[in-house]
Amino acid sequence: MKKIIASLLLLALILTGCAAQSPREEVDYLTVHYIDVGQADCILLLAGDTAVLIDGGNTDTSAEVVSYLRRYGVKDVDLMVNTHPHGDHIGGLPAVLSGFPVETVWTSTLNYDSYTFDRFMNLAREQDAKIEIPTPGTVYQEDGLLLTVLGPVGTNYEDLNDTSLVLMAQFGEKKFLFTGDMESVAENHLLTSQVSLKADVLKVGHHGSYSSTSAPFLKAVDPDYAVISCGRDNEYGHPHPGPMKELKNQNVEVFRTDLMGSVTIMTDGKKLSFLLEYPAAMPNAA
Q: Is residue 177 scored above 50 in pLDDT?
């Protein structure tokens, strides 16, 4: 715990120094921002001059997402990822497309019956973004950041959550696993695919739902830290006691946006540093 608190202070000093100069100047580290968007997902990765946005939260937090990106000096989005088209993941992406040039869009599907998804696709096409459905093994690499698509490895899933794009980000020796709303069926398929899931930081699937983060999956990832993006006192009871127990049993340090606000992790490729919006909540997170 003392090591994490020291890392929090270090990262706060680093980010303050960057903001006073230029938040996007060339640097030799990666920052991963798990943005507090309530009961939703939105993750911003910044490495040098590269910006990657994974999901965009709900429609009603669109303004906060746009403001967050501008606060950290984002001028354009190099890669936008929609893990799957549920509203709590795609809702804010149209606002980002309206406010920033976007070079490439990764999406799990080209067809989904919703106004928000249609607007998302139309705005991406209007600005001539490159739209792709990436398959396992697809990579994106810029400014020391390597992003690899791991899943979904199966097809014809009954639950849309299992179609979530699963991504591994690597910077130097450190790895971050992003799982969207992937549930146990897709987790099992990933396990049987024998792809390496080992990561230092896990974004817990489906906001900590009971249907995600099984013990075998968590053992394969073997993270030191986990981040859960969920809303305070949400109606779904996320995070569920089951995944929380598994995380505790495997000695994983847990960070929750409902308790801590936005969670930022910085790495130089060898060490991790942390910044919490509400750091006083950290000791009781798990």
A: yes
